[in-house]
């Protein structure tokens, strides 16, 4: 039987010079395999939305608009998330299967967030928004009465455009003085539902990606930087217009030594006609 040390003979390299240290049994070092570092997903860079402390954002500072992904019904919320006990009070009966037993969070998505500098104005706007929606649901047009119940329910549940138009009208009526309102859109083209927006409204677009079922938490709105940017842009535009007016009124003087001389007319040069390429016939032989 071979000794156990002989099994390692093929793994141990032979020394160039035989010494006392080389006669000692040594084992080869184990190969270290390279390990991959775990993938670290970079966090998206979020823009600054204000102070998010609870003391700086009392109730009424923000109104979150949620819409149903299929029926386009709208629910207003003073909180970032939808609570079933409070949100179900805003869902009215409009026909068969129009009122669910409970809200499904995967069916409701945020599309708008309104931030007010004065919380009392925000609470008043929240009340008026619910009252106007109730009026849209109960006061119908004469044309809706002649339609079927299923089609009428589908038209009445589409509240997305009315809610945006109501917000613009409330901001124009209730927001007075130096108060401002920031409207942060998920899709800026939704602002076209309103006929006009007052000057107190500052429009903004949501930059964070991946918002699907919960609205992004907003901070205190301080209208300082937005107004300065608008003033700077307007001042630059006026200066450019004045420079253009001066350039139009300026007179082009001829160079020295050319005054009094007649300038010969430049003959018209006709461009050479480019021959059109021959058209290929659509007929071909099959091989």
UniProtKB/TrEMBL annotation:
InterPro entries (UniProt xref): Ribosomal_mL67 (IPR024629)
Annotated spans, Disordered: 243-287
Principal subcellular localization: mitochondrion
Record bears the keyword Transcription regulation: yes
Basic and acidic residues bias: start-end ranges: 245-279
Protein keywords: Mitochondrion, Ribonucleoprotein, Ribosomal protein, Transcription, Transcription regulation
Protein localization: Mitochondrion
Keyword presence, Chloroplast: no
Top-rank lineage group of the source organism: Eukaryota
GO molecular-function term, one example from the UniProt record: DNA strand exchange activity
UniProt GO cellular component terms: mitochondrion; ribonucleoprotein complex; ribosome
Family: Belongs to the mitochondrion-specific ribosomal protein mL67 family.
Record protein name field: Large ribosomal subunit protein mL67
């Amino acid at each position: 039987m071979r000794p156990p040390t002989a099994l390692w003979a093929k793994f141990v390299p032979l020394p160039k010079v035989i010494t006392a240290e080389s006669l000692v049994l040594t084992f080869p070092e184990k190969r270290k395999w390279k390990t991959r570092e775990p993938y670290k997903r970079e966090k998206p860079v979020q823009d600054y939305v204000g102070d998010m402390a609870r003391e700086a954002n009392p109730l009424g500072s923000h109104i979150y608009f949620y819409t149903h992904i299929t029926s386009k019904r709208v629910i207003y919320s003073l909180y970032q998330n939808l609570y079933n006990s409070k949100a179900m009070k805003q869902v009215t009966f409009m026909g068969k299967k129009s009122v669910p037993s409970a809200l499904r969070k995967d069916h409701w998505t945020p599309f708008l967030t309104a931030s007010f500098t004065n919380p009392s104005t925000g609470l008043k706007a929240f009340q008026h928004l619910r009252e106007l929606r109730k009026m849209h649901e109960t006061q119908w047009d004469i044309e809706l009465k002649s339609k079927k119940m299923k089609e009428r329910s589908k038209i009445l549940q589409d509240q997305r455009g009315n809610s945006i138009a109501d917000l613009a009208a409330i901001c124009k009526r209730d927001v007075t003085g130096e108060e401002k309102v920031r409207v942060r859109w998920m899709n800026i083209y939704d602002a076209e539902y309103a006929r006009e927006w007052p000057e107190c409204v500052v429009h903004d677009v949501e930059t964070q990606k991946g918002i699907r079922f919960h609205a992004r938490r907003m901070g205190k709105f301080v209208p300082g930087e937005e107004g300065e940017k608008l003033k700077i842009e307007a001042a630059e535009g006026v200066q450019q217009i004045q420079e253009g007016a001066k350039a139009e009124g300026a007179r082009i003087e001829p160079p020295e030594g050319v005054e009094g001389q007649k300038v010969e007319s430049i003959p018209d040069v006709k461009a050479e006609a480019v021959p059109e390429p021959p058209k290929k016939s659509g007929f071909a032989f099959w091989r």
